[in-house]
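I can't quite decide. Please look over this sequence plus structure tokens:

:::
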Amino acid sequence: MDEIDAIRAEGPLRRLFGPHLPARGSGHLWARWIFLRALGAVFFSAFYSLAFQIHGLMGPHGILPAGEYLATVARELGLLQGLWYAPSLLWLGAGDWSLTFLVAAGLAASVLLFLNVWPRATIAACGVLFLSFVSAAQDFSSYQSDGMLLEAALISLFLAPRGLRPGFGEAYPPSWAARFMLVWEWFRIYFESGVVKLATGDPQWRALTAMDHYYENGPLPTWIGWYVQQLPHWFHAVTAFLVLALELAVCWLAFLPRRARLVCFGVVTPFQVGIILTANYTFLNYLVLFLGVLLVDDRAFAALAPLARRVPARARAFFAPRAAPAPAPVATWRVAAAAFVLVWVFYATVLEFPALPAPPGPLAAPAVALEPFRVANPYHLFGSMTEARYEIEFQGSRDGAHWLAYPFRYKPQDPAKPPGLYAPYQPRFEWNLWFASLDAWEENPWVVRTEALLLERSPAVMRLFAGDPFAGGPPPRYVRSVNWLYRFTDLATKRTTGLWWAREDLGPFAPALERKPDGTIAAMPDE
């Protein structure tokens, strides 16, 4: 009896949405256990990143204050509609202490989830706290990875076992529907990204040149990517073809019988590891990597039993202290609630599928209702490839003639400094500058707001940078933002000069600001 046969042997509602333990080791207890530990680690990375940035991003003295934003939402929409439009605990208060509490609570919940303590409650806490940030962070939460994490968290509520210390959760094995929905999310991330690469008509994907400069043009390159960039065009053309093949064809193996699923896992895992090593896409690839673990059943993990015996018994007992002989009964209302939520999310994600016509208003209403919660999203990674790398740099001056650059923590800036490996850490401020560099400053007024806060020497904003070039002396009178064009150097140049980057000054990006003698801030006269 395979997994599908075991499901059919149960009742019509419970066989899909209730706890389900198939015969002959084809269940997913191990996969669930590993995925939920990874989910806790991913949430920890997200909240840990915010610990050093959230006040500068959205605090009262930050770039895009959450309190001001929520007040505007309430004024424009009314309080009740505003609560639905921007679901966030920060409605209760968006001061520095509230932001600190949000991050600290998120870190605590993610650690407990990783340690397998009350997983359903800790997943819910992580999801609510992260949604509270996402809903109020405006431009600093406009990433597909945020939606991926929130979607995975909601579905994982129905995947996770009940109880304070459930161990492997044999008493509450994962339902077929919950695992399917996470695999469905995993599939959409791949397939929708492949479809959009062709649908946009980007000539780089059609000519298989999309990877020729991919490694230098992403938000945060790595030094490993620098070396891969040096490989000949044929390698990058083959890579581009393999990306399309994996996203458009290989990912379909996830819905085929067991052997095909294992082959799929064996193919996509090194693919994700390669992305992690050659680019810094925050926690995105780690989440996708561990979503793929749900393709592997317990029979496959049983082959690793000899390795598991090397783990100290005390450590094994800490994570999985109990075992139950059979699934425990679950109330019908719980099964019905799971069915309602998962079917709703599935319906909404189908409507978001690329290339499908937009449905009439009433049919689209369920998907529209979920939009503020970011749990039913379209995914379209790298539909159009950037053809050059632009970098915005902030500079200050006391006299308007001699300018000093504000040093970044992670972005390319010093041509002699190698790009690093930072993921899953996400420096949202520097990420946003990469996106802003692709548009006009008018589309990103927060860049000018940053200039003003640098003139004011806002402590929260200054902490977003690696240092203050004016520390120990008078503050700058002028601050400006300039745009640079960056390119990887080649092997010969690096050998002779030690430079990882070549850069070209493209001039001002946004209007420069001046602090007047009376303390007011105004646009600096054109030079």
User: Anything to note?
Assistant: Residues 314-325 have pLDDT under 50 and may be disordered. The chain is about 50% helix and 10% strand.
